[in-house]
Amino acid sequence: MAAQQREGGRRGGQTVRDMILSLALILLAAGVIYLFIPHDDSKDPVRKVSYRVELDTARRAAPYPVAAPVGLGREWRATSVTYQGNGERGAAWHLGFVTPREQYAAVEQSDQRASRFVGRVTQGARKTERGQEIDGERWTRYQGDKYDALVLEKPGVTTVVTGTAGFAELARLAGALEASGGKDDPTGKPSPSPSGS
């Protein structure tokens, strides 16, 4: 009986020691891998996307002129783009950016009723009495806990410029928008921009 206890005690000690040695080897291997795999912490973590193909596709398919910015500059980095022809938000165009001030701003368009669409893409921002004149057109300001927005309603399309960016950057994005395409423009010739630019 005593011999069995001594044998069990030795096996228990060996098991703990073996686990510690195994853990040390795993940590050593992880450290070596980390040292020899190249990584650059100074690189920009924002994943930029090209949106030309999606924009051309949306402009051929959408029932309204699709808006995208022209001349914003390289510091505006496109990070997301989608067009859905018949989803829960109607025919919906989305183009998201990281702004020069490292905020989020997006262009959202849809042929869905504005009262439903705006609330969804602004995450519940509320309409204010304030408007903002941008290139001769009156955009309505919306404010929210997470996103603010500038909204332009036209027959058949609502254009929303929204995000965590301040109104100055949202207005800059809205002012750079040019729209073309849509069912009334099968040739793809540019149509008037939602911002009048």
Topology of helices and strands:
Elements: H1 2-36, H2 52-61, E1 66-69, E2 77-87, E3 90-98, E4 104-110, H3 114-121, E5 126-134, E6 137-143, E7 148-154, E8 157-163, H4 167-175, E9 177-180, E10 190-191
Antiparallel strand pairs: 1-9, 2-3, 3-4, 4-8, 5-6, 6-7, 7-8, 9-10
Give a description of the structure:
With 197 residues, the chain is of the alpha+beta class. The chain has four helices and ten strands. The longest helix is centred in the first third of the chain and has 35 residues, at 2-36. The radius of gyration is 27 Å and the shape is elongated. The chain starts with a helix and ends in a 6-residue tail after the last strand.
Task: Give the fraction of residues assigned to helices.
Answer: 25-40%
Secondary structural class: alpha+beta
Strand content: 25-35%
Largest sheet report: 7 strands, antiparallel
Oligomer: single chain
Write down the secondary-structure element order.
Answer: HHEEEEHEEEEHEE
The total strand number stands at: 10
Alpha carbon gyration radius: 27 Å
- The 3D shape can be described as elongated
Termini gap:
93 Å
Unreliably modeled segments: 186-197
**Can you give the mean pLDDT?**
84
How many DSSP H or I helices? 4
Q: List the strand order in the largest sheet.
A: 2-3-4-8-7-6-5
